[in-house]
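G., the chain you wanted modeled:
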Amino acid sequence: MRSLHYLLLAAPWVILAAVAAVGLLTEPDPRGFGTHEQFGFSPCAFREWLGAPCPTCGVTTSVSHLAHGHLFESLRTQPLGLVLTMAALVAGPWSILAHRRGADLGQQARRLAPKFWALIAATVATCWVLTMG
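Predicted structure as tokens:
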């Protein structure tokens, strides 16, 4: 299944391009969330219904801060935005090196999937708890 290999090879670079686009097209919302509304998306229904941030509330604002060079504000707003961007910065070069060495990224992903999803869930949960405080 070589298509998964090439998807994984491209994904970090797509994420980094999206971070750059968010930085070029938005200004971080001073509330610490809601920057996604600048793209025409509705406000967070979770926040409106429950009065608390959803697990990803503030990620776009965090990424916008990061793209504007506001590292501390990015981390303070929603650590998940910074964590995901940093992961893409590491995964991009790693995926190219693995590809050049002949590794099957799809096979590696299938082997690591349970650990990967557990790590993602733990990271999202931790970042969510940090934004609640």
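Residues 27 and 64 are 6 Å apart (CA to CA).

Shout if anything looks off.
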